[in-house]
Q: What sequence folds into this?
């Protein structure tokens, strides 16, 4: 079995935006894996640290359980709002 080294971790600056490349329109279980794989020669890999994941999960839990600030105000998400599709 081949062994691979870990990808180099590079921190992105605060406020940086990451663009998500478009994927295939529709795939089935019969399609080859290459149809849905990201070609890392063309798209740089993005990673995060375990501490960042835990920080975001903790904040998500607080937001979804109705936690409040010390002043009694509801917590607000720092993520930009996604426009809702018309029904």
A:
């Amino acid at each position: 079995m081949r062994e691979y080294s870990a990808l180099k971790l590079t921190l992105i600056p605060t406020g940086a935006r990451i663009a998500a490349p478009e994927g295939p329109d529709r795939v089935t279980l019969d399609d080859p894996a290459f149809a849905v794989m990201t070609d890392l020669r063309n798209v740089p890999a993005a990673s995060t640290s375990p501490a960042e994941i835990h920080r975001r999960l903790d904040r998500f839990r607080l937001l979804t359980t109705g936690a409040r600030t010390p002043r009694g105000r509801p917590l607000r998400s720092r993520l930009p709002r996604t426009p809702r599709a018309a029904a």
